[in-house]
UniProtKB/TrEMBL annotation:
This is IGSF1 protein. It holds the Pfam family ig. Coiled coil: none annotated. Gene3D superfamilies: Immunoglobulins. Transmembrane segments: none annotated. It comes from the Eukaryota. InterPro entries: Ig-like_dom (IPR007110), Ig-like_dom_sf (IPR036179), Ig-like_fold (IPR013783), Ig-like_Receptors_ImmuneReg (IPR050412), Ig_sub (IPR003599), Immunoglobulin_dom (IPR013151). The keyword Transcription regulation does not apply. The keyword Disulfide bond applies. Keywords: Disulfide bond, Immunoglobulin domain, Signal. Residues 3-70 form the Ig-like domain. GO terms for biological process: cell surface receptor signaling pathway; immune response-regulating signaling pathway.
Length: 185
């Protein structure tokens, strides 16, 4: 095996039309470079800073939608590529949800933690995100708008946010919530 590359959005979630985000590629790599692909087509060679390379998107449009991958090359040879990151740009129609964490943002290892994503809209579902992850951490339904982590450990630390949607005739999205940092002592 070659190096492992991760790809993620900062901040995570569905991007508001006209909004901005950063696509991050990360790898414990030395002296190669990253190339970003969307829907199988090469976009850019990315500027690498340490073990990371980023592409900023501002004033996002539907054209920024797509399946993104990072490839890591040394001497023109692809050594590794990331999993696929699905990027969605949508109009925002729902109010911003409020994310809270119990018992608090700083907990002891082994504690039981509950994330709650609250939105003033009946029937909305919500996604919970952890910055640095390509995939949604958890889907919260309106019947159960909590996400519980039992026996937390250092690997659960990070910056969390949530984003909600409704499934009426078409999906309607909220902006992403506030971000909460979880620290595990």
């Amino acid at each position: 095996g070659g190096p492992t590359i991760s790809i993620f959005l900062k901040p995570p979630g569905v991007i508001p039309l006209g909004g901005s985000t950063t696509i991050c590629c990360s790898c414990q790599c030395e002296n190669g470079n990253f190339v970003l692909y969307r829907n199988g087509h090469q976009l850019h060679a990315l500027e690498q800073r340490g073990s990371r390379a980023e592409l900023s998107i501002s004033n996002a449009t539907q054209e920024d939608d797509g399946a993104y991958n990072c490839h890591y090359l040394e001497g023109g040879i692809v050594l590794a590529h990331s999993e696929t990151l699905d990027v969605m740009v949508r109009e925002i129609h729902l109010p911003r949800p409020l994310l809270s964490v119990l018992p608090g943002q700083e907990v002891a290892a082994g504690a039981y933690v509950t994330f709650r994503c609250a939105i003033a809209h009946r029937g909305a579902g919500c996604f919970l995100y952890l910055e640095g992850q390509a995939k949604v951490l958890h889907l919260l339904s309106k019947e159960r708008d909590d996400f519980n982590l039992s026996r937390v450990h250092k690997g659960n630390e990070g910056r969390y946010s949530c984003q909600c949607f409704t499934r009426s005739a078409s999906f309607s999205w909220s902006a992403a919530s506030n971000t909460l940092g979880l620290v595990v002592r």
